[in-house]
Amino acid sequence: MNPKIQAIIDHYQFDRIPIEGTFYKSTYVSKKTIGDSPVGTAIIGLYCHKPLSVSCFHRLAHDEVWHFYDGQAFVLHLLHPNGSYQKVIMGKAIFEDQQIQFTIPANVWQAAELLPESEYALYGCTMSPGFTGNCFEAGNREVLIDAYPNQAAIIERLSVQGHETKLPEGFTQ
Asked: pTM for the complete prediction?
């Protein structure tokens, strides 16, 4: 493993999100709530090739704001309810159409991975209302391929194995 990536993992004491395995660290959970959800939440995440950290297809019940912090570019793959596909490159090359911040609307299937030439990406996600395990649904590979056949290769690469689509009871970030 690259020593810099290991140092980042050690510094933030990353955990893995159940089902998909993304490295993350919760950095903020509002004490105020809206129903059963905190008013807001924030995480820091890490994508890398070794050890592998990607975000498998999932959708959230609320909008999610992504922030690019450090490293090299990564791609957000978005499957919209109307059947369209959108590719968003997150990175610091803002004059080359990379985004340092991007909002994914609620109920859009999303996945993310490093670009092949990238070493790592440090990013953040914020939500309001905040993230809870019950606002998350992992994508079923077969169902997504049926709905988005032109994106089958991406879905094959970035979908969870098995049929587990819900996070463990009580999971919060």
From this structure: 0.94
